[in-house]
Amino acid sequence: MPLTLLTGLECYGYINSKVKAYANMLKTNYLVLTLAVVSISGCSQGVANMKSRVELPCGDKPNCVSTQDLRKEYRLDPYVLKKGVTIVQIEAAALTLPRSKVISKTDDYLHITCTTKILRFVDDLELEIQGEKLLVRSESRVGYSDFGVNRKRADELRKILLENDLIHPDNLVKHYSK
């Protein structure tokens, strides 16, 4: 089989076509990766009109905490309100949590979303005043585990409510949780 020698111009054309093909492949891979990231983060947006789940226990995924759940890994100690506390005061305190936004509010209920910093996942924080207690539920919308983010958020909320003198300290809560 005879060997064919390419001229400089033919060699340049051959190499150039291979480089262009490789560049197009990289663009395609970049586009697919970009679409995947956007669709993943896009999934966690929305659900503005969800029904209140504050009284429900958490599901079986470790991405939720609630004052209404009796299982240790999901349970939050009660938040016992001081006399006369309103949802407006609770809202002002809760909105000091990072990247939080009110979705809906009534006289005794507040639905807030908190968005994670990097991947922009949305978690739902629901708060409801029932008598002298504040029901709290914080849950991730997507994923299996939240790596403790919702528990940390609930603990931070408790700290903020205590600093604003809206709830009783933990040592008094034991009396109310019986």
From TrEMBL:
Xref: InterPro entries: DUF1499
Domain of life: Bacteria
Pfam family, one: DUF1499
Name recorded for this polypeptide: DUF1499 domain-containing protein
Originating species: Vibrio marisflavi CECT 7928
